[in-house]
Every structure is written in structure tokens, then in C-alpha cells.
């Protein structure tokens, strides 16, 4: 898929990480695919997970896993109330740790490709 932001072709990468910051599963797709579609296609077994933190690309995951949490979205008709904004802030503060692991993983993958 072509990324206008990066000005090059990119691959979709999905990682599943446990609470010990250990990467359990890595899935990739070289075709253009929505995050949640890749998730459903790879069908990870997360039934024993106590909770699942996902970004907004995984809207609908709550229908598969009741223990899943994604950011709440506002619409023109229904703006977010303060409680929902607080929830999103807390989720974001927790997910940033996961994003740091993704950054390290990507840096490692890039360094391995350049050697």
C-alpha cells in the first residue's frame, strides 16, 4: 500500500503484546487492508485475555471480545461527554507503552533489513 505520509509503499503490521511487554504474535499484510479486517483474518486466540487494548482502527472488536477496549468516537450529533474524554485519555496513557514497543520493533526490523 502506498503511504502518502511516508511517500513510499508500506506493509500493514499487527502485533499482539502481553502485559509483560512481550510480543506474542506478529501478522503482516502487503495488500491494503483495514486493521480490524487483518485482525479477523489472522484470528488470534484472545479468549483467555483479561483485557484487550486496541486503537481506533479496531472499532467493533468489542463484539468479538467483551474485554476489549477502544477509544470512544464522537459524531456531530453526539459529542463526547467529559467522562468519555477521561476514558479516552486513560486508555491513551496506557496504550502509549504499547506504541513504544511497536517503535522498538519497527526499528529492529528496519535495522535487520539494512544489514
From TrEMBL:
<protein>
    <submittedName>
        <fullName>Transposase and inactivated derivatives</fullName>
    </submittedName>
</protein>
<dbReference type="Pfam" id="PF13359">
    <property type="entry name" value="DDE_Tnp_4"/>
</dbReference>
<dbReference type="InterPro" id="IPR027806">
    <property type="entry name" value="HARBI1_dom"/>
</dbReference>
<feature type="domain" description="DDE Tnp4">
    <location>
        <begin position="1"/>
        <end position="106"/>
    </location>
</feature>
<keyword id="KW-0479">Metal-binding</keyword>
<dbReference type="GO" id="GO:0046872">
    <property type="term" value="F:metal ion binding"/>
</dbReference>
Amino acid at each position: 500500500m502506498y503511504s502518502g505520509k511516508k511517500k513510499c509503499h508500506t506493509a500493514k503490521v499487527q502485533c499482539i503484546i502481553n502485559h509483560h511487554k512481550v510480543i506474542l504474535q506478529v501478522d503482516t499484510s502487503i495488500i491494503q487492508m483495514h486493521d480490524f479486517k487483518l485482525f479477523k483474518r489472522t484470528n488470534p486466540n484472545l479468549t483467555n485475555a483479561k483485557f484487550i487494548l486496541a486503537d481506533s482502527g479496531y472499532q467493533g472488536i468489542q463484539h468479538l471480545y467483551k474485554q476489549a477496549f477502544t477509544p470512544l468516537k464522537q459524531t456531530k450529533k453526539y459529542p463526547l461527554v467529559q467522562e468519555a474524554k477521561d476514558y479516552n485519555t486513560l486508555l491513551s496513557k496506557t496504550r502509549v507503552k504499547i506504541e513504544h514497543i511497536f517503535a522498538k520493533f519497527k526499528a529492529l526490523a528496519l535495522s535487520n533489513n539494512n544489514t
